[in-house]
Design a protein that fits this description.
mainly beta
Length: 105
């Protein structure tokens, strides 16, 4: 048996790890004229790893939607963060805590 071409070349992307920011995905609007005054995420960055070409293309990890439609004052939400590229994975727990403070418009 003979294969043509007799030689096959493979090119592998090197593995890369880096930190990216966590971006909150908001859902809903504040009721009775309340708006988001400030918010923060802990941890605010996550480490990702994967093929360098894919890792370099990721700008941020996105959280599951945080629904602020019933929030008045300050609330905390435990949500998961993710990256949309299936070749890239998070190196630690995807769970983050989003703290949001609402104020009257």
């Amino acid at each position: 048996m003979r294969a043509i071409p007799a030689e096959v070349q493979f090119e592998f992307d090197r593995r890369m790890t880096r930190s990216i920011p966590v971006q909150v995905q908001w859902k809903g609007e504040g009721t009775n004229g309340y708006v988001v005054a400030r918010s923060f995420v802990l941890p605010d960055t996550l480490e990702i790893t994967g093929p360098a070409g894919h890792v370099q293309g990721i700008a941020a990890a996105t959280t599951d939607p945080v629904n602020v439609s019933a929030v008045v004052g300050t609330s905390q939400f435990r949500v998961n963060a993710y990256v949309s590229d299936s070749y890239v994975r998070l190196r630690s727990s995807p769970q983050v805590v989003v703290t949001v403070s609402m104020r009257k418009k």
